[in-house]
Amino acid sequence: MRLEIFGLNMRINDTLREAIEQKMDKFSRFFDESARGEVKLQPEGNNVRAEVTINIRTHFYRAESVAPEAMTAVEQAIANMEGQIRKYKSRMKKRIKDYSYMDTYFEQQEAQVDEPGEDEFHIIRRKSFPIDAMTPDEATLQMELLGHSFLIFLSSETGKVCVVYKRDDGDYGLIEPEY
Questions:
Q1: Around 100, how many Cα atoms within 13 Å sit in the side-chain half-sphere?
Q2: Beta partners for residue 59, in sequence order
Q3: ∠ CA 79-21-18, rounded to 5°
Q4: Which domains does the chain have, with CATH numbers?
């Protein structure tokens, strides 16, 4: 697995970098060399936020944690991610054949918007990404793995752009627009 370690508004010394690499090495038993790992560390008040993301093909695994020390935050995020992978392992094995045709990676992009006027909305983050064809069940699994509350996808059943989302009661909803 290729690994990138970033410090946003903070420096990462060699000792910390080596410790993070050693901890992330445990994921080599789950993923092959095509996987890409990313660890971002960012100060948050008196604490440090660690965000760990692993990308393999179009699947993302993401966990984050906040702790007083950088290494503690990284260890907690890695433990959370390992739990996620174990939890969804059987589901992923069933679906691995369904995902074999997907070979492009999501590309995320952030853009800053100038100061809004009085009557304008203030958009603070903008993302663009390719939409992949999948079933609603696959989209729900991907949404859960990312830890998001919704996911936009191209329905392989209808060929239309759809949204799957998590409801307040814990169930899932599917929005299928008519156009």
A1: 5
A2: 56
A3: 125
A4: 2-95 (3.30.160.100), 133-175 (3.30.505.50)
First CA to last CA distance, the chain: 42
- Distance from C-alpha of 174 to C-alpha of 150, rounded to nearest angstrom: 9
3-state secondary structure the chain: CEEEEEECCCCCCHHHHHHHHHHHHHHHHCCCCCCEEEEEEEEECCEEEEEEEEEECCEEEEEEEEECCHHHHHHHHHHHHHHHHHHHHHHHHHHCCCCCCCCCCCCCCCCCCCCCCCCCCCCCCCCCCCCCEECHHHHHHHHHHHCCCEEEEEECCCCCEEEEEECCCCCEEEECCCC
Q: Note the pLDDT tens digit of each residue in 28-38.
A: 777 777 888 99
* pLDDT tens figures, 63-106: 999 999 999 999 999 999 888 877 776 666 666 554 443 333 22
Percent of the chain past pLDDT 90, that is, above it, reads: 39
Q: Partners of 48 in the beta sheet?
A: 43, 67
Confidence of residue 114 (pLDDT cuts 50, 70, 90): very low
Could you tell me the pTM of the whole model?
0.55
